[in-house]
Amino acid sequence: MNSELEDRFRDVVRDFTPALWRLGRGYEHDAEKRRDLHQDILVAVWRALPSFEGRSSLRTFVLRVAHNTACGYVARAKRFGVEQLHTIETIDHSSPETHLDVERLAELVRSLAPLDRQLILLHLEGLDPAEIADVTGLTKTNVTTKVHRIKALLAARFGME
After folding, report:
1. Which of 5, 9, 138, 143 is deepest in the core (most CB within 10 A)?
2. How many other C-beta atoms can be found within 10 angstroms of the C-beta atom of residue 76?
3. Cα(150)–Cα(13) distance, integer angstroms
4. For the stretch 105-124, what's the b/e string if a residue is b when 16 or more beta carbons lie within 10 angstroms of its beta carbon?
5. What is the pLDDT of residues 129-141, one digit of tens each?
6. What are phi and psi of 97, to 5 degrees?
């Protein structure tokens, strides 16, 4: 095996595992299935690393691979009749909580259309509009507009308007 590739993969695992777990939470509610998705993402990153040419940051590259893998996971699950996305109706809106509930936000994010979910997850990971555009293939202006609209939608659904 290529020692340089192994070192780069170890760096990816060390530096990006928390972000990859958060990303997985945005695509899969069930903890066991989320672990499977995480493993699928790591395998996809391992396979893709030899093609990394440095035209974007390693972070952008890894998140692109991760999102593509997660989108494929959701598409396969739907094709086999398994609904992985939980709708907004499953959320307990009667909760008296006044602080941001991470699980509730995750439910709301999972209820979004796949592209919107991808955009907001990348935004929540701290990528700027240019980096998100690089991952998704959208224009920076389109990303900025869409993220603004998604945030407004989430705020409305979260009851923050």
Report:
1. 143
2. 12
3. 29
4. bbbbbbbbeeebbbbbbbbb
5. 999 998 888 999 9
6. -60, 140
Helices (H), 28-113: 31-48, 58-79, 102-110
**Angle at CA of residue 82, ends 81 and 88, nearest 5°:** 120
Low pLDDT (below 70) residues in the chain: 1, 75-102, 159-161
CA distances from 114 to 5, 8, 74, 117, 160 (A): 31, 29, 9, 5, 23
Identity of the residue numbered 62:
V
- Reading the block at residue 29, the tokens are 């509610």
User: CA nearest 68: which of 29, 27, 15?
Assistant: 27
